């Protein structure tokens, strides 16, 4: 195997993880994931595939951290061929990755920190021309749909940790707590459990009209919404909660009940075999049925499948992926001053909510316990 000369992978830089290396993820799950990639290669009549996105890498490596900056590109690329898996990274990252992030059986290759990552990884292919991730994006998304047992357990724990962090922070909040103070407390708790706060949002009473409210120095006042998207082992859990320091107006309480009813309709439409654009049509109908009007879906995205991306993908009328069992979702219907959002898993018994903290107040909606506004 060869690599481009401008960023060559030298023979003495190639290493294979040994028995003493920690092994992220689960070996049994990784065998299934590799088989899914081989199926993609078979259908494409190709012998290798280059993975370069954080979503694809963390899924296939079963949770390895391949980033430094949360806002930056991965610091590794992976060539999957019929003989094995080849992870290429920069020389200033290689020791840490080998010691802490490399699954068993994955060959590690190091290039200079100023080298060309993707070209070097592609050069490891026998013909120097692997199938690129973008060419099979839909097939890779389908390969990620159904969570395997070990990653399901990791996701459930992350989701519970995110829900617990939200309860801790909002229980301690007061009307004088600023939005920045609230999200900084939330970030601290997410980081303390080994996760990364990819998204932190907060709107106090004066800013409740914004659907994506980045925090400000304003006090939250009588009522606030908080949102966190937390990532650990590559998986992303998403949750929204509300806190209020009065009984709420009749209009607020009514809207809260109606948005939960919209969500219940979405859950009923989330069944194996359904197409995502069919669920999207059900979402549009639900807004009208529950008196939010026909335009509310146009004012904010509605969520979709979850897992190794915040949404994988966001649903629209053009997304025709079919839903499968053991697939995670985060739906997030919203209206003026209201929103509901949890991370769930579609099981044989129906939709199971993962972002649960038993301390949070709930009410029954369509036979399922759903969160209501916390009033400390």
Write a brief caption for the model.
By secondary structure, the chain is an alpha+beta fold. The protein is built from nine helices and 17 strands.
What does this entry look like structurally?
Helix 1 (27-44) packs antiparallel against helix 5 (137-145), helix 6 packs antiparallel against helix 7 (179-192) and helix 8 (250-269) packs antiparallel against helix 9. A six-stranded mixed beta sheet has the order 1-5-4-3-2-6. A four-stranded antiparallel beta sheet has the order 10-11-14-15, covered by helices on one side. The protein has helices at 27-44, 54-60, 91-101, 117-122, 137-145, 149-172, 179-192, 250-269, 276-289; strands at 14-16, 48-51, 76-81, 84-90, 106-111, 131-132, 196-203, 223-232, 235-244, 303-305, 328-331, 334-335, 338-339, 342-347, 350-353, 362-365, 368-371. With 376 residues, it is an alpha+beta fold. The protein has two domains: 5-143, 3-Layer(aba) Sandwich (Creatine Amidinohydrolase, Chain A, domain 1); 149-371, Creatinase/methionine aminopeptidase superfamily (Creatine Amidinohydrolase, Alpha-Beta Complex). Strand 8 (223-232) and strand 9 form a beta hairpin. The protein is globular and about 65 Å long. The longest helix has 24 residues, at 149-172.
